[in-house]
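Sync notes, pocket subgroup
Present: LS, DG
LS reminded everyone that the earlier model was apo-only. Rerun requested with fe (ii) ion included. Inputs:
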Amino acid sequence: MATSTLEESYKENPQSLQHILPIDFHLIQEVPNSHLWPNINNSPINHDDKSPNVPIIDLLAPNVVELIGHACKTWGIFQVVNHGVPIEFFDEVESQARRLFALPAEQKVKVVRSTSGATGYGTARITPFFSKFMWHEGFTIMDSPLDHAKELWPHDYQEFCDVMENYQKKMKALSFQLWLLILNYLQPSQEHLMNSFEFTQALQLNSYPCCPNPNHAVGLAPHTDSLFLTILHQTNNTKGLQILKKDQGWTSIAPISNDALIVNVGDLLHILSNGEFPSVYHRVLVDQTKHRVSLAYFFGPQVDSTIVPLVSFEKNVGVVVPKYRKVKVKEYLSLKAKHLETVFSLIRS
Ligand SMILES: C=C1C[C@]23C[C@@]1(O)CC[C@H]2[C@@]12CCC[C@@](C)(C(=O)O1)[C@H]2[C@@H]3C(=O)O
Ligand SMILES: O=C(O)CCC(=O)C(=O)O
Ligand SMILES: [Fe+2]
């Protein structure tokens, strides 16, 4: 039986073009009303705030399984060092991403995500759920960006494709390594799980142009990521990412170095771990003078897979009941496309 793809699963929930097409940020001197957020919840933004103690994990540490398990449980997000991806890779992807976002709006529109599509240029998929637009433009790649790159640079598309494909390969290998460590923590005795999924991936290039009024604009509105894991690179040491931390409110996650990567738990890992690893609620703020670019790599199960909470035995607790019913990945994505914030309540068991 042929398996479906993320692309096919998005077709069932088309979006309107008005929610996909970003404005032309190059031309803007003042934030228009459509992008003006009255209340950002901690304005004025304090850019000098200290980063919280998000765990920093050395992937070569002997107790890496425990470290990752603990970080996923308590934070849902951590930074990794010694991940083996050379810093040049990030620089190359960043420079190709900046090359794309620097194109005039008339060019970028040529590769705009279609109303029923998954890849290409456009706003974040969560845009229709908010009454204001975000100070953001993105470009989503799933495997090869060849068709879009040819449209943008008919005589000079190869380098963009090579860099993006290579980066996805590196991130896939790293994600798989993290995935095995996570499974090892969750269910050390069930080795069959190691081979029980096929995977899907997406690379999202995010651009947050300089914003004339950063205290009343939002780069990415609060959300959780949907798949198992996201690996994020914040280029050029520019912060902007915040997580919502119980008792501390919105807290910035500053890059610790240009080759550190941020890993965060997504909804499908939340469900698989029966809520033991909560998916982290996060958002992005913007800056008046820095054009921030980030690279987000999403790793998850193939859309025909079924996710069942792993509850046979939970560490230190004993037998526990599943908090969520089993759900097919495509059903979950479809529910989230319609309900966003309330989706977990719809799959409670
Ligand atoms: C696989 C994916 C995750 C994502 C939707 C996408 O198809 C590609 C873009 C991703 C992104 C990036 C910005 C935030 C987010 C919620 C969105 O609207 O698009 C995530 C999606 C997600 O994790 O659900
Ligand atoms: O740009 C960032 O720091 C975060 C991006 C993000 O949350 C996403 O792409 O889902
Ligand atoms: Fe995200």
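DG: The two ends are 29 Å apart (CA to CA).
LS: The chain has a mean pLDDT of 92.
Action: DG to write up.
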